[in-house]
Amino acid sequence: MTFTEELKATAQAMVAPGKGILAADESFGTANKRFQKLGIPQTVEMRRAYREMLFTAPGIGKFLSGAILFDETIRQSTEAGVPFPTVLAEAGIIPGIKLDAGAKPLAGAPDELVTEGLDGLRDRIAEYYGLGARFAKWRAVITIGNTIPSRHCIEANADALARYAALCQEGGLVPIVEPEVLMDGGHAIARSLAVHHQVLHAVFDRLYLYGIHLDRIVLKPSMVIAGVDCPQQASVEEVARATVQCLRDRVPASVPGCAFLSGGQSDELATAHLNAMNQQFKGQLPWTLTFSYGRALQQAAMQTWMGQEANVAAAQKVLLHRVQLNSAAALGEYNPERETAVSHA
Length: 345
Fold this sequence. Notes:
This protein is α/β, with parallel strands linked by helices and 345 residues long. Helix content is 45%, strand content 14%. It has helices at residues 3-14, 28-38, 44-55, 71-74, 84-90, 121-130, 151-171, 189-209, 236-250, 267-280, 295-305, 312-329; strands at residues 20-24, 64-69, 94-98, 103-105, 113-115, 135-142, 174-181, 218-219, 257-260, 288-293.
């Protein structure tokens, strides 16, 4: 199979109906902060054991198409010595890799960020492909404020996303293109919609300019939602309508699917928003709408696990329940009443 055929097949598989992507690509710092809050030791072995708990949950491959790994994780193995990419692939889950080096202050743009990591990227892609990765992720961060985002910030991040995507497709990895508009701030949903329009317009303009094959990418957008400090929070239905309106205006039909980030929403709200989109617009959209959640899939399982081997089975059951609920939401079949009952499936 050529890279072209492989990329198309992988992109389609990543957004298969009723399946989503587990974002398990937390950096050392992020993973350790979450462990510290729960009193879990912040060690390499503990991070490895935690990822093993996630990846070996029985039946998880029925509901996940892919899992995004961090550099440390893609090189680790189960306690029995099986590499994590092999564990995932055998479960029917496509291994992916985070490629960006994080968002850093953007020169000449106070309070704004640009994502770095393009240096040496071609060689890193080749190495990760050899380790079993078949897709990648790059996250751009856009902040809403009184006078931001600036055009400078939007264009710089769009350009980096396009350069990353071009290198990925050259090297055999499907690029997840993630332009995240943060929920931080007091802005209303109308302001969020306007900024999402600007950002997605710039991103697809650059993807086109760089010759990116849009049928070989997956978009990972944020939802159009009011800032967390806004006194007027939009309803679930309003968020669904605004988000889909924006995607219809800005996302070409050739893109196979959109796998939303949760962006700090609660587990239940992220699921409800995804479900409302798929319920309201079932059969009307050219692309699949699914999930690529991190904390919104993992947090409850981590709190159950607590770093204890004796808690692994219970934590895996909690994880599977959360993933099942989001799988249902990706089909527009989520029932909020199931939130209170951990599945025994």
